[in-house]
## 1
Amino acid sequence: MVTGMVTLDDIHAARDRIAGMVRETPVKPAPGLSRLAGGPVWLKCEHRQETGAFKLRGAANAVARLGDVAGVTTASTGNHGRALAHAARAQGLAAVICVSRLVPQNKLDAIAALGAEARVIGASQDEAFEEARRLQREEGFALIPPFDHADVIAGQGTLGLEILRQVPDAAAIAVPLSGGGLLAGVALAAKSLNPAIRIIGISMERGAAMAASLKAGRPVEVEERQTLADSLGGGIGMRNRLTYPMVRELMDDLILLTEEEIAAGIRHLAQQDGETVEGAAAVGAGAILAGKLRADGPLVLILSGANIDPARHAAILRGQT
Ligand SMILES: *Cc1c(COP(=O)(O)O)cnc(C)c1O
């Protein structure tokens, strides 16, 4: 199948490599969403993964594949930065997470709590990224990007293997979509094992870079805007090599949600299913509630992360967005 640079074999190898470092997360039925969607809906509870998001799978696989390096680095302050810090510590490697002056103290503390150095540099994400590149160039660090990297994609693909084992008759998987590492890996695994399975990507209407790029026919930049699905923000990289072509080839449908629809998803998952998730992880539920996604056969929603500010979560449950 497709896309040459990542294969099902790579995903199987990643699964064996990271087995001791990641949890197998549970799936559970969602009765309320099933009624609304017209067919069985399953929740893949990956927000219960170590570090609170699936990103540990890709980071752990990439770190485990490294040869002799001085340490690892990246410029992500979100779930990828946490995952990389955790994976590096598990392998006894130094991790330097480069951040700009705009990043709030609580995020710096969270990185430090994972045993990594948060290096504050420059006034923008671009300048922070420059420092990560300098560490790679001059100090022997490995720069592990959040999605456009074969080992990261293969690691995220292990989630697809798990889903097909847990829900063997799955007809479709709804995948939160940003840079596309998650969707590319899950789709490659799932379609290799069952070519008929449908892969539905879901992003927010506000600033979805992959959606804009697919429409333009090449990677394009979009203006970054505040969104409840903050883990879905950011660009796909103007020199994207892997995830853009893989998503273009493997995704069957793309759904975009308003902020209200994402908030409704967060609320429903908390109140009806007892799951606390961040905005990015609530898009599948939000799409069903909005009437934008139906279940023609068993449908699996990936709850991709749990990292939401508790005060924010409480406000959303009270009906504020
Ligand atoms: C990173 C992330 C996504 C999107 O993953 P991509 O590989 O960038 O498409 C979705 N949900 C959560 C919680 C994330 O941290």
## 2
Amino acid sequence: MQLIEDLKSLKEVIWYNPNYRCFDEVKDDLPVSLEDVLDAEARLKRFAPYIKKVFPEVVDGIIESKIDEIPKMKKNIEESYNTHISGRLLVKRDDSLPIAGSIKARGGIYEVLKHAEGLAIANGLLKLDDNYEILADEKLIKFFSNYTIQVGSTGNLGLSIGTISAKVGFKVIVHMSSDAKRWKKDMLRGRGVTVVEYPEDYSKAVEEGRALSDKDPNSHFIDDENSKDLFMGYAVGSMRVKKQLEDMGILVDEKHKLAVYLPCGVGGGPGGVAYGLKLMYGDNVECYFAEPTHSPAMLLGLATGKHDKISVEDIGLDNKTEADGLAVGRPSSFVGHIMEKLLSGCFTIEDEKLYKFLKALYVEENIFLEPSAFAGFLGPVFTGDKYKDENTIHMCWATGGSLVPEESRREFLSR
Ligand SMILES: *Cc1c(COP(=O)(O)O)cnc(C)c1O
């Protein structure tokens, strides 16, 4: 297969999904539904008074980010790549999500809160129609301290889950892969989280975390590779995108297609977002996943149909990338199966380009993002031949950045 040869030689590629189908043909055969997403959205509404109480910076208790239009960056990309991007270029600012500073504030926080709600209700400490502020009472915090949350992470998921779990009162253990940045581990330890470090990659951190958690009946393992709850937390964001675009006066329909470019690691974040967008816009939105040339796990899983039965190491790649949030060698099969017919395509990007985009966005639009968040920015260049209509709306999903310390920012910008 030519594609595999290209991946092996670390060539940047775009793969258009030959199994793509109309959303109506596919939606009833999926293990997730609109009802699931609405249920998650309602749960997050119930938690809003609690979030507002314990994180006063989240003014309305709803963890959400804005959408910006970036015309200067669009021009910069057109000039750098000697190309034309038809239509408008937007960026979804999940880098600025409160509490965790990345897209993981969606899935991670949602799953921890759902778990806390379940425990409190089962033990007669909470009712659905209570004001959830009571979860911040000393009595409840003490109750939650009998339970443990564990998770395996390349950094940001640990940051999100560690922070919210410690706030709720849970004991929390984050199993970090070798890619995880020092400052993320330090920040977590400062927040009372136990961080266990592994010299190996993400899959190993997950495996060890899962095994330890399984031995403790009071421990809940947040399974990035298989979690429907995480997926739902991400999908809720897409319900809100529709309203945000409407408020910006941006219409999405057959004549105004939305193309969305999502950085992909194990797949949960981009998968949940893409699924939610499909629920909102059906065939009028087309989603693409973006991965580093050294870690094209989802592309490999989808293109071969082997999902988690194949890893990037199996084709001789090293899974070493500066995009720490995307350093995943084996994709989620749960997400891969959902995306099989919904995803329009996947593409890869060299690490070096991540830094070029990082600098350009900072200079042109005064927006700082972490390297992983730039994987999608090559999307509009790759799809230039496909979207020739000036009504096209391109949206790059910026997945993280606001918590990056000053010292690392300077280092990233000087590369
Ligand atoms: C985790 C992460 C992603 C990808 O999410 P997955 O669920 O792992 O696919 C993208 N960007 C950043 C910054 C992340 O932390």
